[in-house]
């Protein structure tokens, strides 16, 4: 799951508010793509994947509203949608990424002086925590 390795690395390595926002936006985008690719693989996980994709879209939109988000740099969409990965492994991987994302966004929100950026980070962190809970992880910013 190369997409997960790249997304988690970017989230963990991001510095400063603009860097975390940029990594978070891309991570939410990648989660949406992977969740949509796998949402119909298993009828037991379908509802959780659909709800998690909606939360990822909400998180992305929260980030998009932050003033400190840098101008978008075009990037290639992820090509590794984990096609050969089980729904359970996808769920675990996205739950772990979401937990990491919730933690980073919560931390950067605490040190952000601008109220609008702080609200964007806090709202996106709540969506990331919801994804983690939906897919079996645990995080509660």
Verbal overview:
The chain is an all-alpha fold and 141 residues long. The protein has one domain: Ferritin (Up-down Bundle), CATH 1.20.1260. The chain has helices spanning 2-13, 16-38, 46-64, 87-110, 115-134. The protein starts with a helix and ends in a 7-residue tail after the last helix. The mean pLDDT is 88.
Put the structure in a nutshell:
The chain is 70% helix and 0% strand. With 141 residues, it is mainly alpha-helical.
SSE blueprint and pairings:
Blueprint: H1 2-13, H2 16-38, H3 46-64, H4 87-110, H5 115-134
Mean of residue pLDDT values:
88
CATH architecture: Up-down Bundle
* Major sheet attributes: none
Query: What is the number of domains?
Result: 1
Look up the CATH topology.
Answer: Ferritin
* Low-confidence regions: none
Number of strands: 0
- The portion of residues forming beta strands comes to under 5%
What would the keywords be for this entry?
Ferritin, 5 helices, about 140 residues, mainly alpha
